[in-house]
Write a structure and sequence with these properties.
160 residues; mainly alpha; 75% helix; disordered C terminus
Amino acid sequence: MKRMFYQVTFPATLAVVTMVFISAVFYTNANLSYADSAKKKTSEDVRTSAVDYTEARINLLQDALTISDAQKELWKNFTEVMRENAKEMDALTKDRAENMKTMNAIEQMKFHSQMTESRLAHMKKMLPPFEAFYASMTDEQKKFIDTIFRTGRHGKHKID
């Protein structure tokens, strides 16, 4: 009888404790006034501009890759395209931020479609200079870049 009591009580207690824990995790950061847009941060407050993000990424890569003199022109071509793409993305997101409150659902979908097409065009524009730069890399640099593309992380080590 005592054994049966524990067989029922322990799983039931475990289930209740688990539900309380899960509820606490989900509701701790819940914004209960989601519909109250006056308290929301604007997208400009929350997001870093594409230009700033791109510049930071260029600086990190440049420091980590130790680009040789022979690679500098190829690197310059690649980073120019990155910067142009970032400026275009900032213009698109600025346009959206200005019109966000007046956009209906169809306009929102059209904007997302435009963003997707823009990203694809940027990738296509960036591919040739990246291919040329990649072809000039040492095996160690290629391994580093391959890891970044595979994992999205680059660590803090400098390639010599």
